[in-house]
Every structure is written in structure tokens, then in C-alpha cells.
Amino acid sequence: MKKIELGDISGFAAYERIREKQRQRIIELKQRRRVAVGDKVTLLFENRDTIIFQIHEMMRAERIGDLDKIRGEIEVYNELIPGPHELSATLFLELEDQANVREDLLKFLGIDEAVYLDVGTHRIRAVFEAGRSREDKISAVQYVKFPFSDVALQALTTGEKVELLIDHMNYKAAAPIERATRESLIEDLTGET
Known about the structure:
Blueprint: H1 12-33, E1 34-37, E2 41-46, H2 48-62, H3 67-78, E3 86-93, H4 101-106, E4 115-119, E5 122-125, E6 127-128, E7 133-134, E8 137-138, E9 141-147, H5 150-157, E10 162-168, E11 171-176, H6 179-190
Helix pairs in contact: 1-2, 2-3
């Protein structure tokens, strides 16, 4: 998937004119790309469109107009763009009890070793971005990638069962990848539009 460049990003005035239409389009896109795995974990599969939207919204929220700062945001967010034969996702730990959020988060230590995408008989272990978890602290937002072998990609495109799986000592859950999500992910992996 092509990385984002400065030319892909609109200025404030241009973005404000198209924001509502873009926002609606991205909400619909994200609905197809969001998968709840149990009641406490959600993964949102990212692509160029979702990332460009995030950059625009960050610029808007923080009033970033300086070109060097925009380039910096692009550089950071480009890390979320999946590479060849790879899916990229943002993993959210959905913890509602704000009084115990730190303790509840700590229960998820080690989740970076426990998230998989099963495609037929192929198990793809999620590769987590480094630095978002330590032995005494974990972020509620994690960035993960799923590297596909050729045979796993073929299994995905030929319709074999696909499921997200979390096999953690404190959290076990699985969720099937539905047809609309699968089609969207195949587009990411194959470059088809």
C-alpha cells in the first residue's frame, strides 16, 4: 500500500469544505473494518483512507498548519500503513470502569503475545508496535500488523474461514471476519479496488 505524502493532505480551508462528506464516508468504511473480539477488545483495520482521515482530524484538532509539523504527522502515521502482504490494525482495549482502569489495563500485559488471525489452517501472530507495553504499564491503544505468507493470502482470497483470536491468560475470545470485512481486507492485501 502506498505511503502517504504531503500532496495527499488538504489544507485547513479545503478540508473544512469536504470534512462532513469525508467523515461520513470514513464512518461507513470503518464499520466494515472494525471487529469486536469479545467485549473488551476491538480491532480497526487501517488503510490509506482511514490514516489520511486521522491526519486531517489531528491537524484540525491541534490547528497544525506548519508544513514541517504536517510532515512529522505524516511520518508517524505512515507507520500504520500496511506493507506488502500485510494488514495493519489499531487494537483498542475497551475498559469502561474508569475507577479501576489502571488495574484493568495491567490484566492485559502480555497481550502482545496472544493475538492471532486464523486463516483456514494458517495462524498469523500479530506483530505489535514496540514501546506501547512494559512490565508495569500498557497502553489502551496498540498498533498491530499481521504479515501474510503467500499461502495464507491464497486461503483468505479463496474463502477459507477467517477469525481473530485472543488467547491470553486473562482474556480469551474469538470473532469471525465477516464477508464485507474480508472483502475490504483482500483489497488491502492485493491492491484491488
